[in-house]
Amino acid sequence: MWANQVAVVTGGSRGIGRAIALLLASRGAAVCVTYTERADAAEYVATEIRASGGRVMVVCADVTDVASVQATIEQTETELGPVTILVNNAGVLYQATLDTVDCNKFDSMRRVNADGIVHTTRAVMASMRAGRYGRIINITSVAAIGSTLAGNAFYAATKAEALILTRRFAMELGSHGITVNAVAPGFIRTDMTRGRIHGQPWDSIEKHVRERTILGRIGEPDDVANAVAFLAAPEAGWLTAQMLVVDGGRMDYLGSG
C-alpha cells in the first residue's frame, strides 16, 4: 500500500526532515522534499532516495507564501501523483526572553511554524477530500506543553499554536477520511539545535537534557522519523487529533494547577 503513497515533507533537506523523507521513501512512498536555502542538502537527500530506487523530487518552497505552497503541491501532483501524506516539518527557532524579544523576529517565526501549516494543509486538502484519504502530520515540540528550557517561551507559543491547529483541522477533515496528528520531539541532535554551539557549551546542554530524560539520552532525527512513519501509515486510519511525544521521557515540564 505504501507504493501508492505520495508524500510532501516540508523542510526535508536536513535534520528531522531529512530522516523523515528517507524513511517514507524506504517504505515505498514517492517523496517531494522542500527546502528554502540549502539546495545542495536537498539534492543530496534526493540522490540517496534515487540510489535506493525511490521516486523523489526537490522543490524550493516558502511555506509562508501561499502562491509558493500552491505551486509546490501542483508540481508534486503533476510529477508524482495526488498527495496522500503531508508532513509539516519546516520550522525555525528564535530564542528570546521578555527582556530581549524582537517582535518582528517572533512574528517571522510564527509565520513559518504556524501559518505554514495552514497554507500547506489548505493546498492539499482538496485532492485528499476527493480521494477520501490523507495523512497529515505536524511537527510541533515538547516546548508546546511546557518544557522549561530557557529562552523558548516564544518558540513554544508558535508550537502550541501548531498543536491546536492539529486538533481543529482533524475535526474539520476527519469526515473525509483524512487524519491529522502531531509529533512533539524533545531535544533532538540537529543543525537547528546545535547552531554554532560546539565543544564544552554543547556538552553542557546535552548533559542538562540527559539528566532530565528518563532514558538518559538526547534524541536523534530517526527517533522522530519513526514516529512520523507510524502516523503516516495506511494502517493508522483510526488515529487522529493526537500528539505523539517523542522525548525520551522528559521530566522538566512546567507544573499545572
Record the SSE blueprint.
Layout: E1 6-9, H1 15-27, E2 30-35, H2 39-51, E3 56-60, H3 66-79, E4 85-88, H4 103-131, E5 134-139, H5 153-173, E6 178-185, H6 191-194, H7 200-210, H8 221-232, E7 243-246
Parallel strand pairs: 1-2, 1-4, 2-3, 4-5, 5-6, 6-7
Helix pairs in contact: 1-2, 1-8, 3-4, 4-5
What do these coordinates show?
With 257 residues, the protein is α/β, with parallel strands linked by helices. Helices cover 46% and strands 14% of the residues. It is built from eight helices and seven strands. It has helices at residues 15-27, 39-51, 66-79, 103-131, 153-173, 191-194, 200-210, 221-232; strands spanning 6-9, 30-35, 56-60, 85-88, 134-139, 178-185, 243-246. β1 (6-9), α1 (15-27) and β2 (30-35) form a beta-alpha-beta unit. The radius of gyration is 18 Å and the shape is globular.
